[in-house]
Amino acid sequence: MPFNSQTLEELSLRGEPDWLLDRRRAAFAAYERLPMPSRTDEEWRRTDVTGLNPGAYATLEHANGLKQDTPDLPDGVIFEPLSVAAQRHRQLVEPYLFSTVHPDGDRFSAFHSAFFTGGNFLYVPDGVEIEQPILRQHLSHEGGTTVLPHTLIVAGRGSRFYYLDEYIGEEDEAAGYRSGSAEIFVGEGADVGYVSIQKWGRHAWHLADQRARLQKDSRLRLFNVTLGGRFSKTRVEASLVGQGASAELKGIYFASGEQFFDFHTLQDHQVGNTTSDLLFKGALQDTARTVYAGLIRIEKGAARSDAYQANRNLVLSDHAKATSIPMLEIDNNEVRCTHGATVGPVDPQSMFYLQSRGIPAATAKRMIVQGFFGEVLGRIPFEQARTLVETELEARLG
Amino acid sequence: MATVPKQIDVGSDYKEKYGFFVPEDYIFKAKRGLNPEIVKEISWMKKEPEWMLKFRLRALEIFRKKPMPTWGADLSVIDFENIFYYLKASDKQSTSWEDLPPDIKKTYDRLGVPEAERKFLAGVSAQYESEVVYHSLHEELSKKGVIFTDTDSALRDHPELFKEFFGTIIPPADNKFSALNSAVWSGGSFIYVPKGVRVDIPLQAYFRINAENMGQFERTLIICDEGSFVHYIEGCTAPIYTTDSLHSAVVEIIVKRNARCRYTTIQNWSTNVFNLVTKRALVYGDATMEWVDGNLGSQITMKYPSVYLMEPGAKGDVLSVAFAGKGQHQDAGGKMIHVAPNTTSTITSKSISKGGGRTSYRGHIKMYPGANNCKSFVKCDALLLDDESRSDTYPYNDVDAENVTLGHEATVSKVSDEQLFYLMSRGITRNEAETMIVNGFIEPFTKELPLEYAVELNRLIQLEMEGSVG
Question: Which of A362, A367, B119, B156 is the most buried (most CB within 10 A)?
Fold first, then answer.
């Protein structure tokens, strides 16, 4: 199935409404118009996509996400495949869908918006709290395909819940194109915990946007885990648009072999009395490479904002390379902003201390890496996700 | 108890203290604008050798071809055709203070240069517009073989040494403004410190722009031979005119093995000067380069002193302070280019914005493949004194080496209420307290300055702070 306008019509025949088809068409036009990013664009200077043709993996897989012990959802909660929800709950879906992940942002966002298949829509009405986390697995069944799930979450006023997206592929399946974008709208006073775990196969291309918009007094705890893919580029962005909003953005990554990971984060304080706290920690071994670039932006009227941003990289081999670029743009003085970035090898003193206690070098190194991640693992918003991530890391640290 | 300067209105004081200008009386003033004829005229006036004329004309070509940089500050307002590229103030260099023409003397009297000499400073080399007109060098230094002269004289008197290094560290094609400088450069300081010689007293030069729409394009070249040490200080002021001036200098420094060079700048141009400067040092084995860079004046400054760490053991250090008031944009920082393994660098940046001013830290740490076991640390602190002002931090890191340690830390904040409360509860007024906090904030910088500069800087900060905060 080639990626052309006919494919769009076919996708649409699966029961999608006309307004959605129109959006796909507009996104497709943007995809055809926009050039591939070049090395002269600041965002892509260290990120090489010359080997990627999004149209090359011509089979589209439909991943709506497998249900996994979905708890009994309270009345009024809508949890459906996105294409179904677009038909049944137009008034809830249309204003939000692709309003933060702009199809004309770049060629890959446009591709995702034009051809997304699968993904889910979750709507939690005002005041509803869900104790059990909602877990979703997105699977790729074979290599050489394209999988483009999209998650849309709308949290009503004062609602509270947890959500997990897990992206899973066979470790050694052939190269394919993967995305896994999420848009999260956190209503006034709502409290949302969102975790994504990306473990596509080791040859996959992965490009995703995770964007959240936070209203007054709301809280988001977002946790990004990146483990899979030959190439993975993720944007994590939180816009604080209501006073008293608070966003906690945490991430861990473990890159080995020839993996390349790129993270671009944005903490956008549009109004005052808002808080954001970002910490991304990564370990690299073999010849892996990672790029982190983060920006805190405090807009003019956003007084009494408090923002923190840190990126820490532990480089476990001589040939792995981590690049870290933390940036600030501050337009208000009633603020407190701090950021920090470090790139460095395992501290030889810590190694010496552990070895002097009779611990073999390999075990000592492993303990140090575990300790390094330990600080941030505790911030995973709910138990199931924490266990899942710990198990996964365990397996990879070997 | 605290000693506080008396209330002075900043703007009027600047006019009186630095904003004076004497009626123009130039022997030679090139026409406005930029073309090969002007460049040929400059070269002819200076009686330069053929190779320098060719160098200038080639640089002019490069300047024409290069696009304006689109990153950083907005430079679109610069009109290159409306600038005087060369002025010659008096027909011969004076060797003693008494010989100077009276109006030039008056200018320097107000800057306090003779006092500086009375204070037994090693050498005073003050640049009045494009030529160094007053210049004295301590005898002891000449005996040791130290050369401290203006760059034009160096081209004439030390042609071999000059040709070996000139334009090799910052070639004309490096960027648009280094090309411009290479085409129309005039004046600047030339320093050579022989092997093993330590110059214990700082060498100083004072730069001034007097004429309206005048470009200042000095060119400084410092060569520190093995095991030597020198500290060079430049200060810059300009009177206030209604139209804009351009300052575009190039500073090239070579620090050979085991040598150490410190270069201190206090930039206090009036707030309609565009200050676009390229500064770069090459540092060899176990040698140290230190840039101490203070930017208080100018409308727009774009300046990123850089250090190329060429051999193992080389060390680079940038200490940068920026103060941006109303209508000012200080885009400053530093670059550390690690070419060799086992090299270390630190950048410390302190910036203060007030009254709608904008400070940006822009830095670059690069570690080339093979430059293993390097360490670099960058720290940026910014103070925002009111809610109209802005502060940005753009640190770029490119690491292609192995086993490196790289750290970056930055904070942006306002004057903290707790600190203010503490000081005010001790009976200190709000304004005094704020001034004290700001002076404390930049203390790591002031304590690196020679005493008279530190006093001057503290005073300037106090003037800027009066009645402006809160």
Answer: A367
